[in-house]
Design goal:
By secondary structure, the chain is mainly beta. It has a single domain, classed as Jelly Rolls (Sandwich), CATH 2.60.120. It contains 4 helices and 14 strands. It has helices at 3-8, 17-32, 70-73, 86-90; strands spanning 40-42, 57-62, 80-85, 101-109, 113-120, 128-136, 140-148, 169-180, 189-198, 214-222, 225-230, 233-238, 247-254, 267-279. Strands 1, 3, 5, 10, 11, 12 and 14 form a 7-stranded antiparallel beta sheet that branches. The chain has a 7-stranded antiparallel beta sheet with strand order 2-4-13-6-7-8-9, with no helix packed on it. A hairpin with a 3-residue loop joins strand 6 (128-136) and strand 7 (140-148). It is globular. The chain starts with a helix and ends in a 7-residue tail after the last strand.
Length: 286
């Protein structure tokens, strides 16, 4: 599948002509620089596990809804498919694994990189859809974008989630050299920062991602700050707790206690169009 045609002809037109031209231009620029040293782009055009290249290795976890192998996730149609069933979410949380994942992973990736994905259906009631970095040795380093149709622990619990006046919630988190501070609160890793907020558009309006459209989710990870962007709009910046070790990049979904319950039956698929990892210094960004 041609990535440019895939981008210009998504399943549903979700932007104005001007916005769509801008998005197409961004993709063309990304394609033209895909061989730049330190940049990694995957468009899922070939079936099966992406090959190891440029030091990046892939893996997957299917704890929520088991799959038969890589070709179930990446069939070669230009997308990665991460699917969860309502039946899986109706099971009681497991004793040893109460909050299972359904994810792709790749890496390692260090700071001074922009990590982005373009995905559809990332606001699924019952799970948090994720783009995050993770490293655990003696300490934990992590950066999260956690998207959820309705965060049941948000200040505005009970809000509408659809496009008719509703919006999608997001948690933006960091941990840096974090350990279990049992004297504080047992099982709580610190230092950490967590921000709970609605997703905002370029005009500052709360918006819903339960719209059948593709959206971009981006982490800009610098040594002294983490910037979180959605559809190119800066959502928040964290500059007091910033991890500093190369980590895995993980994409997908996780059953979480604050992600609500499914208002759907059957299955839901988070469709990932591409993953792009780009050095922030490559285009003069410090």
């Amino acid at each position: 599948m041609d990535l440019k045609n895939n981008f210009l002809n998504p399943p549903r037109l979700c932007a104005s002509a001007g916005d769509f031209f801008t998005q197409a231009l961004i993709l063309l620029l990304m394609s033209s620089t895909s061989l730049m040293a330190g940049e990694y782009f995957e468009g899922f055009e070939l079936p099966g596990k992406p090959p190891t290249r440029d030091g990046i290795r892939w893996g997957y976890t299917d704890e929520l809804t088991p799959v038969e192998g890589w070709k179930n996730i990446i069939p070669g149609d230009g997308y990665a498919h991460l699917t969860v069933t309502s039946r899986a979410l109706q099971k009681p949380p497991g004793k040893n694994n109460p909050w299972p994942f359904q994810t792709l992973s790749l890496g390692p990736v260090g700071s001074n990189h922009r990590i982005g994905i373009r995905a559809r259906n990332a606001a699924i009631p019952g799970v948090a859809c994720l783009l995050f970095t993770y490293r655990e040795k003696s300490h934990v380093d992590e950066i999260d974008i956690e998207i959820v149709a309705h965060d049941t622990q948000s200040p505005e619990a009970g809000h509408a989630t659809g496009t008719d006046g509703g919006w999608t919630d997001v948690r933006l988190n960091t941990w840096a050299n974090a350990t279990d501070r049992s004297g504080d609160s047992p099982g709580r890793l610190s230092p950490s920062r967590s921000i709970r907020t609605p997703i905002l558009d370029a005009k500052g309006r709360k918006v819903s991602h339960r719209d059948g459209c593709f959206h971009t989710y981006t982490i800009e990870w610098r040594p002294k700050s983490v910037r979180f962007l959605i559809d190119g709009v800066l959502q928040k910046v964290i500059d007091d707790v910033v991890p500093d070790y190369p980590s895995q990049v993980i994409i997908g979904m996780r059953r979480m206690p604050w992600a609500g319950t499914p208002d759907w039956t059957g299955s839901q698929t988070m469709l990932i169009d591409w993953v792009d990892i780009e050095p922030l210094t490559a285009r003069g960004v410090q």
